[in-house]
Amino acid sequence: MRLSKRGEYGLRAMIVLAEPVEKNAMPVVQIKEIALREQISPKFLEQILLALKNAGLLHSKMGVGGGYYLARSSSEITLGQIFRVLDGPVAPIKCVSQMAYEPCGCPDEQTCGLRLVMGDVRNAIADILDNTSLADVTKRQVSVRKKLGIK
Amino acid sequence: MRLSKRGEYGLRAMIVLAEPVEKNAMPVVQIKEIALREQISPKFLEQILLALKNAGLLHSKMGVGGGYYLARSSSEITLGQIFRVLDGPVAPIKCVSQMAYEPCGCPDEQTCGLRLVMGDVRNAIADILDNTSLADVTKRQVSVRKKLGIK
DNA sequence: TATAAAACCTATTGTTTTAGTAGTCTTTTC
DNA sequence: GAAAAGACTACTAAAACAATAGGTTTTATA
């Protein structure tokens, strides 16, 4: 039940891009800056951000002083959207996937016990990922920092 | 976020083994019988059942008329136990694993937004898997069958 | 007591996925 | 027009996955 490095890095990068920008800062962030901050290979991250851009979650600016920025407000982008672009369906088994259903080959799908439980698991994961926006994540980070006495 | 075939087949097999035995039926079930019912390669299933046996979830009887049976009552074996034997930790990322923690390499683990959310995901999955026993699964199957007008 | 049926165990193999590297092309600013 | 940035495509090494293969041991029973 593993998140891939691709998914991990992509989610990390999106969280960085969702951070409230300081005064006078550029609205766009460059690949190499994110890569440096999050300790990710810049070329690998490039592919990931490109995929997120082609999926419509990011916009970019080419050329000198260019970089990436969120395509929508951070409260309108969910972790579920990001996850699905990078790692595919959330469901642990194809036959319970809402977005990419396929039969899983069990004798009788309707009464398959495994399917019933995995359906619950899928819903539990999707509930979290689809109802958590990037803004929710940054809000939570802020409150954790406050609790720990700023930083 | 995928369940492996190994995990899928193992869980299926355990559910079969948890089914209430008919009168006069042998208390043990053979690999090939399960393989046939669930459409699994018998040799692959053999490895899986062996792993479950070595983990203490199954017992076996060798020789003619042998086979496998649950090591404990079906209400005392959870899907979480089976899953972990076959697919490893439930957590989507190592740094939120309760059973097999490892740092994940983010700059600051305490305030890592991804880690906060993935912790929730881990807990949601573990809540289901660790609180669902094989007996719960078979009970649920029965009630689904009843609802659909027996079968 | 020989035979066949069953689990036990280990090694090997082919395929797919993963995680990354490399290199060229295009756009933009100065 | 040079440099800085993203866009795109191809490739590759290593690991994981899904089996397959084949011999060993145990046990019931004919």
Question: How would you explain this protein's 3D organization?
Answer:
The structure is a homodimer of 151-residue chains. Chain A has a domain at 1-77: Orthogonal Bundle (Arc Repressor Mutant, subunit A), CATH 1.10.10. Chain A is mainly alpha-helical and 151 residues long. The first copy, chain A, has helices at residues 5-18, 31-38, 42-54, 79-87, 113-130, 134-147; strands spanning 58-61, 67-70. A two-stranded antiparallel ribbon of chain A has the order 1-2. In chain A, 33% of the residues are buried. Chain A is built from six helices and two strands, in the order αααββααα. The longest helix of chain A is centred in the last third of the chain and has 18 residues, at 113-130. The model of chain A has no long low-confidence stretch (mean pLDDT 94). Chains A and B meet through helix 1, helix 5 and helix 6 of A and helix 1, helix 4, helix 5 and helix 6 of B. The structure holds a DNA duplex (30 and 30 nucleotides).
Show the helix and strand layout:
Two copies of one chain form a homodimer.
Chain A lengths: L4 H14 L12 H8 L3 H13 L3 E4 L5 E4 L8 H9 L25 H18 L3 H14 L4
Antiparallel strand pairs in A: 1-2
The structure holds a DNA duplex (30 and 30 nucleotides).
